[in-house]
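$ run holo --ligand "coenzyme A" --emit tokens
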Amino acid sequence: MPELVPSNGHAAGHTAHADAYCLCDEDGREVARLPRLEATLGVGAVDVRHLLDDAKITTYDPSFSSTASCSSAITYVDGDAGVLLYRGIPIDALVEKSTFLEVAYLLLFGELPTANELDTFTNDITHHTMLHEQLASFYNGFRRDAHPMAVMLGVVGALSAFYPDSIDILDPAQRLISIERLIAKMPSIAAMAYKYSVGQPFVYPHNELDYPSNFMRMMFSVPAEEYRQSPVLAKAMNALLIVQADHEQNASTSTVRSVGSSRANPFACVAAGISSLWGPLHGGANEAVLAMLQRIGSTANLPDAIRRAKDKDDPFRLMGFGHRVYKSYDPRAKVMRRIYEELLEETRTQGDPLFELAKELERLALEDDYFVSRKLYPNVDFYSGLIMKALGIPLNMFTAIFAISRTAGWLSHWKEMIEDPDQRITRPRQLYIGPTQRPYVPLRARGDGASGSKLPAGLPMPSEKSIVGG
Ligand SMILES: CC(C)(COP(=O)(O)OP(=O)(O)OC[C@H]1O[C@@H](n2cnc3c(N)ncnc32)[C@H](O)[C@@H]1OP(=O)(O)O)[C@@H](O)C(=O)NCCC(=O)NCCS
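-- output --
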């Protein structure tokens, strides 16, 4: 068996400061030298880029559990300690003191902006919030009951057809204008998806308002009435946007990086991020949390829900619990819980039954050995769904709002990747486990294959009614 030892000869893992590891064959001969890369926080990495050339072997890590796909200076997560830093700054400090656009600037450019820089950035974003009028006609092509995420990924992808002047990704000025266009237009696109679904007229952005307030107005105002802006709700929306803005190499961010590595334009990259975010194991979880709480209905049903979540023969899981990285309380969930409590207090909502249910579920799960031993704590989606409900946001818009906020993170990673000379087109290797080379058998010599057919018996033919969407 090949053995991995630090280049100073000690067994692997015994020397913290080894600057390289050697992969040795059974006779102790070095077959590859693997430099050690240090991180500024958290664990370092073994550089295996030349492993295939040097040792004729690859590494196997299908869900990237132990693989760093890039180096990044944007976000740091310590899953064991429950720490989340954007460019080194703790998430709770940002939620308390900052605005979403200031955080977007921080993520994109690495430093908090000066007052002038923030003014310029805010002004640029504010003046790109409107959509090309022709884009509005895209919405008519969708069914009214289409999921807003389906609409968003179509419309965001289509932006590349409207802004061909900003898709040369090798031009820093074009990169910046695309980034600003995307961050500016995402709330407008999401709010229009909502308005279309409820049959109300689109509401245009208002340049006097800040980013969260503008979004809330585009969602909830109607031409027939004066819209009253609520600072309390805008504050909660600001917190929600900040908390969800980035989370290092999660599935959708890795998707954006992967698509961007082929030099696809940023509109196409963000549309791919939206697709990945939509899944129930990722951004779709906050919608699933609320649906789950509503289905559970009352605290009397909680023990049964916990029993089902622990039953391996039952597919039911406690949505909003567990995380690939956090093995202690998700710091975002902690912030979200506090914001939710504040929101209930400020809106004078006493004893919200769903909050009572959520708190009790959290209490029961955290006393249960199944969840404790597996380190399954509430994640960000557990409380963000409740906040969105309190803000009056309909269930099917939850993930769309996540997408608005995560666009800042996606684009920061996209920009970092394009500017990183180490990044080439993403092209993983595979461990091939298919048949070895074999001859082609002509059709007449293959028998009827009836018993061993790999195809299902056949799909039902669509009825005329379903074809016309009735
Ligand atoms: C987030 C999630 C996908 C992480 O998955 P993962 O890192 O691959 O972890 P696993 O699925 O391997 O889970 C590890 C163990 O905990 C159990 N587990 C994980 N999440 C669970 C949950 N929400 N409810 C019940 N059991 C859960 C698994 O069954 C497994 O048990 P086992 O070791 O006895 O087989 C997973 O925890 C989950 O599905 N959570 C619910 C969805 C959710 O809230 N997603 C939002 C993430 S921000």
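-- notes --
The chain has a mean pLDDT of 90.
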